[in-house]
Write a structure and sequence with these properties.
The protein is an alpha+beta fold. It is built from 14 helices and 13 strands. The two termini are about 40 Å apart.
Amino acid sequence: MQNLANFLTRLQVFNLRLITKSELKSPIKEDVEKQAYSLAHETHYYDSFTYKSEIRVLKDMALIDLLSLTDTSLKREFELLKKLKERFKLIWTNFHQHYGELKAEYPGNFIFSIQLDYLFIVNNLQSDYKDIYIGDEFVESLHDTLKIRDKFLSELISEVDEILNPRETFEEWMAKQKSPEQVEDATPKLTPKIPYNPDAGRPKFNHQYIDDFLQLIRTYFSEEHFSQLDALIKADEQPASQMIFNGNSNKLADAFKQLYEANLIVGCNKAELEKWILKHFLYSNGDKVNEYSEGWLSAIISSDTKVCKSPILEVRMKDKVPFLVPTVRNKKNNKY
């Protein structure tokens, strides 16, 4: 089980480096010799291809270890993985509460405020009374490494879940529609699978509000991707590729959350809405296109914490009837 141990250790250990402000990629001119935290050696500050590949390989090797276990042992390890997933959900919630979209500098106790030191192992962490600079570069690198770790933990949990609870594929479901008796007779001894349901968990938008919603978010998508979004929401036509939202990642998630909580999106629970967003959307803050992560979305959609400081819209009520109100768009340029 050494591969599994290596993967879980890699997920839960953060190796901070102490550098000077002058070594940052976007250093502030003042106090250039002041100490600063850095995690850029892990993520290379938004250029984390090698790091991502490393975590992916460790995840695949961990799965090989898990495949050798008995069902009882596998179920026990599965429960432990889910407990770790809960800690990632908590760190995302804490991160959102203290994250600032346009902040250049964070308080010296930022790491302690989000409980990174409590939830995980943080090497080289200094006391918060020491004057160590925490800038946006560190916080964005922390976000990036959390996202990658969370992504591959979620993948491993999904793969183990599929082993323990196999699901009927679309092809198997189609075969049953053509000849259900023949399929049942041919596979009487197989472990029962969770029946495939083509409509399960798919968000359904209230048609009365679709055009208003699309109009409010139109400027955040290219014309090509907006056309695909229109077809997805109105007719459930699957897009050719993931659609890119041009803006801060929490804006789009917050918009969907507001629609859901006003019952303008039905047919799914919040976890299924999160998976739908993961499947269909990317986001871009500048030149780099990023993936959403399950934990990041969960901290926005499934948490009661209000994490979007400049939302796209607000859902308001008048005489018990909801209506969509546009908000003032933040004109400031995002540094990334």
